[in-house]
């Protein structure tokens, strides 16, 4: 089980409280598709992904980004039991979606950059460290049920 | 930031004072940034421009595993850029910088084996 200090939990929740899940999720997913274009392979049904502008404006990308980050919020609500929280999603990503877990790490890193650009100076080194830990834990939990 | 978020990277600097704001961290950070500046100026010829550094990383420093560890530094660099540039660190800028840092890491790892 992952151990979170009281200070770490505080850094996570205080940042999260100010996050617009819809905007942030949309941006994180859009950036994933732009910065690592090969990830578009999982979204062939999303329509126009032909340019950064198209990706950013794509309503399916926005909706899915919101879904993904909302799920992230579940992890934050259950910091002491992230593995269990993501058990079903892990199976889904393996059995139905066939996503290489490396992509979870990529999305996690992108989320951190989105938060950094949004919060700028408030995204302190301590914040970065805790959130880096969080995205790693989430990525591991999502990869855990792979077989 | 990298030492804070990824403590395992400190293992490469046992000879440094790693306390926050130390002269050694500032000095070394400046060195790294300087090398990246050189890389930017020689972006179409990274292999040649970074040849010495490539040798250094392969034969002396042997940062391990090469690509992964350099990727950790790349992430911290991007966070700093994002913190400073805010909205101006757009998806397009982000993509270009990420691609650039990956290319630099690849060149630095070229001679590992």
From TrEMBL, chain A:
UniProt cross-references to CDD domains, sorted A to Z: Hb-beta-like
GO BP of this protein: hydrogen peroxide catabolic process
Cross-referenced PROSITE patterns: GLOBIN
Keywords, comma-separated and alphabetical: Heme, Iron, Metal-binding, Oxygen transport, Transport
Residue span(s) of domain Globin: 3-147
Gene Ontology CC annotations of this record: blood microparticle; haptoglobin-hemoglobin complex; hemoglobin complex
Annotated GO MF terms: haptoglobin binding; heme binding; metal ion binding; organic acid binding; oxygen binding; oxygen carrier activity; peroxidase activity
Function: Involved in oxygen transport from the lung to the various peripheral tissues.
Family membership noted in the UniProt record: Belongs to the globin family.
Subunit structure: Heterotetramer of two alpha chains and two beta chains.
Entry protein name: Hemoglobin subunit beta
Native source species: Dryobates pubescens
Top-level taxonomy: Eukaryota, Metazoa, Chordata, Craniata, Vertebrata
Automatic annotation (TrEMBL), chain B:
Pfam families: Globin (PF00042)
An example Gene Ontology molecular-function term: peroxidase activity
Entry keyword Transport: yes
Entry keywords, A to Z: Heme, Iron, Metal-binding, Oxygen transport, Transport
Gene Ontology cellular-component terms listed: blood microparticle; haptoglobin-hemoglobin complex; hemoglobin complex
One GO BP: hydrogen peroxide catabolic process
Every Globin domain range: 1-113
UniProt-listed PANTHER family: HEMOGLOBIN FAMILY MEMBER, HEMOGLOBIN SUBUNIT ZETA
Subunit architecture: Heterotetramer of two alpha-D chains and two beta chains.
Stated family: Belongs to the globin family.
Name this polypeptide is given: Hemoglobin subunit alpha-D
Species of origin: Dryobates pubescens (Downy woodpecker)
Record lineage: Eukaryota, Metazoa, Chordata, Craniata, Vertebrata
């Amino acid at each position: 089980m992952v151990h979170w200090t009281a200070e770490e939990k505080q850094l996570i929740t205080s940042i999260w409280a100010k996050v617009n899940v819809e905007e942030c999720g949309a941006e994180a997913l859009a950036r994933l598709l732009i910065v690592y274009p090969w990830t578009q392979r999982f979204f062939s049904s999303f329509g126009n992904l032909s340019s950064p502008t198209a990706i950013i404006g794509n309503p399916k990308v926005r909706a899915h980004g919101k879904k993904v980050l909302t799920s992230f919020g579940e992890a934050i609500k259950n910091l002491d039991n992230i593995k269990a929280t993501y058990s079903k999603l892990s199976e889904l990503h393996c059995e139905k979606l066939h996503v290489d877990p490396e992509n979870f790490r990529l999305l996690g890193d992108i989320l951190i950059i989105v938060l950094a650009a949004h919060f700028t100076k408030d995204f302190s080194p301590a914040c970065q460290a805790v959130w880096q830990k969080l995205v790693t834990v989430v990525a591991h939990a999502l990869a855990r049920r792979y077989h | 930031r990298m030492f804070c978020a990824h403590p395992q990277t400190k293992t490469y600097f046992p000879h440094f004072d790693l306390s926050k704001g130390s002269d050694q961290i500032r000095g070394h950070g400046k060195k790294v940034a300087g090398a990246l500046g050189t890389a930017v100026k020689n972006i179409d010829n990274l292999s040649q421009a970074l040849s010495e550094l490539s040798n250094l990383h392969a034969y002396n420093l042997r940062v391990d595993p090469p690509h992964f560890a350099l990727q950790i530094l790349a992430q911290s660099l991007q966070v700093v850029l994002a913190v400073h540039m805010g909205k101006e660190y757009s998806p397009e800028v982000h993509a270009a910088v990420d691609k650039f840092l990956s290319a630099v890491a690849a060149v630095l790892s070229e001679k590992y084996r």
